[in-house]
Amino acid sequence: MSEQPGRITIAELIEERGELMRLRPVNENADLDRYLDRPRVQKPSFALCGFVEGLDPHLLHVIGRTGIRFLSMQDEKSRQQSVDAMFDLGLTAVVVTSGQEPPEELVRAAERTRTPLFVTDMETTAFMTDMMLFLTRRLAPRTYQHGVYMDIFGLGVLITGASGIGKSEIALELITRGHRFIADDMVELTRPSPDVLVGKSPDALRYHMEIRGLGILNIRDLFGAASLTDSKRVGLVVEVVPWEKLTGEERMLGEERLVELHGVPVAKAIIPIRPGRSLAVLVEVAARNHLLKQRGVDSGKAFMDALQERIQKGHS
């Protein structure tokens, strides 16, 4: 799996967030292909004084009430010099908050450099908080993993295994048992924070599942919207393997392991395939068992501890 850094163009940002965050464009000739690839938002406080060192042009810049008031207190020449020095760095985009109208020097500099300039009536703190939360999710590093992804008892379960082993059939049975479908064949994984991994379906494959002999199925049309969820934090990986590939000890103990996905350690259970086994039920039980372990209840460990205690006491 190769990690892909996230990025979003200003055009995409406006399409996805413009109406919700009440962003109104000021200049019409702006270069909306400029992009953000980091979730930070910066206030160019010192830059408004003409000190642009330390100003990162590749971030979204926000000018609030204090910034606009400070500009209004400068004489026209100083104001134009400060604004030009800032915009000449090639800023990605600038937002003026609290419904303030940007001064003419700001508008002229934005038009001259084709820098996207917006106004919002949101207060500065609320705007910056909401925007950083959105960008953190939107720009999270992402990768792709083959498998089927399900929401089972509120736990994100990634089902993996060799092609043709029956992962989609397991998922289909789980859906009929009331669990929710997220993705089939290809799962998009994003890492919004160092220890959190979130899985979803790529847009092109959303709601669809391929079943050999039946073709492509639309799960939403077949089972309704209640059978779906868009994304879920990955909590467990279940690998389906042929029975003969496991040793007798592995078949009996069924210990959970840890597997690293996208730099995040995730619990992993292995389920061997054998004729007559209800794999959907076993995946369901693996999810229940993992949830119990998260609450401190480990049936296998309790049994082995009790057995060891009996052996030490000399009981048969």
Task: Explain the overall architecture.
The protein is of the alpha/beta class and 316 residues long. The chain folds into two domains: 131 residues, HprK N-terminal domain-like (Udp-n-acetylmuramoylalanyl-d-glutamate--2,6- Diaminopimelate Ligase, Chain: A, domain 1, 3-Layer(aba) Sandwich), CATH 3.40.1390.20; 168 residues, Rossmann fold (3-Layer(aba) Sandwich), CATH 3.40.50. The strands form four sheets. Strands 8, 9, 10, 11, 12, 13, 16, 17 and 18 form a nine-stranded mixed sheet that branches. It has a five-stranded mixed sheet with strand order 2-7-6-5-4. Helix 3 runs parallel beside helix 4 and helix 6 packs across helix 9. It is elongated. The model has no long low-confidence stretch (mean pLDDT 88).
Summarize the structure.
With 316 residues, the protein is an alpha/beta fold. 34% of the residues lie in helices and 28% in strands. It contains ten helices and 18 strands.
Element layout with pairings:
Elements: E1 8-9, H1 10-18, E2 24-25, E3 35-36, E4 41-42, E5 60-63, H2 65-73, H3 76-87, E6 93-96, H4 104-113, E7 117-119, H5 124-138, E8 142-146, E9 148-152, E10 155-161, H6 167-176, E11 180-183, E12 186-193, E13 196-200, E14 208-211, E15 215-218, H7 219-223, E16 231-242, H8 248-253, E17 257-261, E18 264-273, H9 279-294, H10 299-313
Parallel strand pairs: 4-5, 5-6, 6-7, 10-16, 16-18
Antiparallel strand pairs: 1-3, 2-7, 8-12, 9-10, 9-11, 12-13, 13-16, 14-15, 17-18
Q: How many domains?
A: 2
Biggest β-sheet, characterized?
9 strands, mixed
Mean pLDDT, nearest integer?
Answer: 88
Q: Uncertain runs with pLDDT below 50, 5 residues or more?
A: none
Instruction: Give the distance, in angstroms, between the N- and C-terminal Cα atoms.
Output: 50 Å
CATH architectural grouping of the largest domain: 3-Layer(aba) Sandwich
- CATH hierarchy class name of the largest domain: Alpha Beta
Give, in order, the helices and strands.
Answer: EHEEEEHHEHEHEEEHEEEEEHEHEEHH
Strand content: 25-35%
